[in-house]
Write a structure and sequence with these properties.
This protein is of the alpha+beta class. It contains 15 helices and 13 strands. A hairpin with a 6-residue loop joins strand 1 and strand 2.
Length: about 450
């Protein structure tokens, strides 16, 4: 039987690897749920596939588990093979250095380290036909970084997963480079260096596109791609680059639509898509397009309402609360408009203020800050007649107060003091009780 196949044309090699022939290597890698018992003593032996092996142990049995030094004899039922493992055991698991010799000619020498019920090891596997594996294993399964060398002398180094080589050395190196970009971009995001953050994500996307299709279709990398696109979108939002966010969302949606259903249902993918769609609705709200915002949120609930992920449930619930609150504020605002007969050319300003306060109330601080800034810019462009009204003065001071609080909550103390200084200067001679109350609040905040 062929146990290894080299392919010169592909950088990705998937091995139907050897372990179908040499069953003595097919031990499980899990803990409490998979064990066999010594046929004579009943002592438990972990990391063996229950039902596929029987075993006996010559050493001590502590708390019902093999322990200490001795010889572990394993008999595989399909196909027949007997292996003897000499070494130290601890709580039913191999530990330290040991040697396993099997009747079918397979010999394993390794350094075993049990972690959370899984036997991790680095060792050497010699096969009777002259082939050899040197590298990482989980239990007795080839898993991790390693090199497989055929008797002919040809070898392949890369990443093994469950006895299969899933990525050769070149691909493994490129994937590691991707992960380094992920790490660096995360640090830049934490430092609020959004331009540099986006630039690194673009580098990530370029390198990602150069990987073989067999690699990029792996669920783990598809999830990583989704997360990076989502992070890029967040950076655009924080920079108020709404058009760029729309393009990015389309890219994220396109990636999602091309995924197999099994990957679409993964928690991380669903979280990224639900979060991105929720943010899209918020952008529509900021742009005075509430109908689009509501339809986006409704569609989001339709798509991911069945999700069991708590993060997704929270996103959908918050969007619904936002929608309900906005509609309530909309009705109350209309009552104010009717009572005060505010001119039509000032309606957009009032709508922006309403959105900003509502976003602050929902603790969506990045979006609230953007809306506060939009309001302050728009207010400066209104007529002097409107600015002089008591209603406008109170509204402006209230927005400045909440804007300062939002900046303080996001640790932007420079902007907080800048706005609060302006607010104090603006109201220092005011006799309006509402204005004085706002002034008192900002002074108290500055003290604490």
């Amino acid at each position: 039987m062929v146990i290894y196949k080299f392919t010169a044309k592909k950088t990705l090699v998937v091995l139907p690897l050897l372990l179908g022939s040499y069953s003595s290597l097919t031990f499980a890698e899990t803990g409490e749920s998979t064990f066999v018992k010594d046929t004579k003593t009943g002592c438990k032996i972990y990391d063996l596939e229950e039902g596929n092996h029987s075993a006996s142990w010559s050493g001590a049995c502590v708390d019902g588990k093999i322990s200490g030094n001795g010889t572990l004899t394993i008999i595989s039922k399909k196909p027949n093979a007997t292996c003897e493992n000499k070494g130290e055991m601890k709580e039913g698991l191999r530990t330290g250095r040991s040697v396993t010799q099997c009747s079918d000619g397979v010999r394993i020498e390794g350094e075993y380290k049990p972690v959370a019920g899984v036997v991790n090891s680095i060792g050497t596997v010699n096969f009777p036909n002259g082939d050899k594996y040197v590298g990482e294993m989980k239990g007795m399964t080839l898993h991790g970084q390693g090199t497989y060398t055929a008797a002919s002398g040809k070898s392949m180094t890369g990443t093994f997963s469950n006895n299969k080589l899933v990525a050769d050395e070149k691909i493994t190196t490129e994937v590691k480079a991707l992960m380094e970009l992920v790490r660096k971009s995360s640090l830049l995001f934490a430092e609020k260096k959004y331009v540099e953050h986006v630039a690194l994500i673009d580098q990530f996307l370029t390198k990602y596109s150069q990987l073989p299709k067999e690699i990029t279709q792996l669920p783990e990398l598809q999830s990583l791609l989704s997360t990076m696109l989502s992070s890029k979108g967040t950076a655009f939002l924080l920079q108020k680059k709404y058009d760029a966010y729309f393009t990015l969302y389309d890219q994220l949606l396109n990636q999602f639509n091309q995924l197999p259903q099994s990957i679409k249902e993964s928690p991380e993918i669903q979280h990224n898509m639900a979060s991105a769609a929720s943010s899209l609705g918020t952008v529509y709200l900021i742009q005075n397009l509430p109908d689009k915002a509501f339809s986006t949120w409704d569609e989001n609930s339709k798509n991911f309402g069945a999700s069991t992920d708590e993060r997704v449930k929270k996103i959908l619930a918050e969007a619904q609360v936002t929608k309900n609150s906005f509609q309530k504020i909309e009705a109350e605002t209309q009552m104010v408009l009717n009572a005060n007969k505010i001119a039509s050319n000032e309606l957009d300003l009032l709508t922006t203020a309403k959105k900003a306060l509502f976003l602050f109330q929902e603790n969506n601080l990045p979006a609230a800050i953007l809306a506060f800034e939009d309001f302050l810019t728009a207010f400066n462009k209104t007529s002097s007649e409107y600015k002089s009204t008591q209603f406008a003065q109170r509204l402006h001071s209230n927005i400045m107060l909440h804007s300062a609080r939002a900046y303080l909550k996001t640790n932007n103390t420079d902007r907080f003091f800048s706005i609060s200084n302006n607010l104090i200067e603006k109201n220092k001679n005011s006799s309006d009780l509402d204005q004085l109350y706002i002034l008192l609040q900002i002074k108290v905040i500055r003290i604490f």
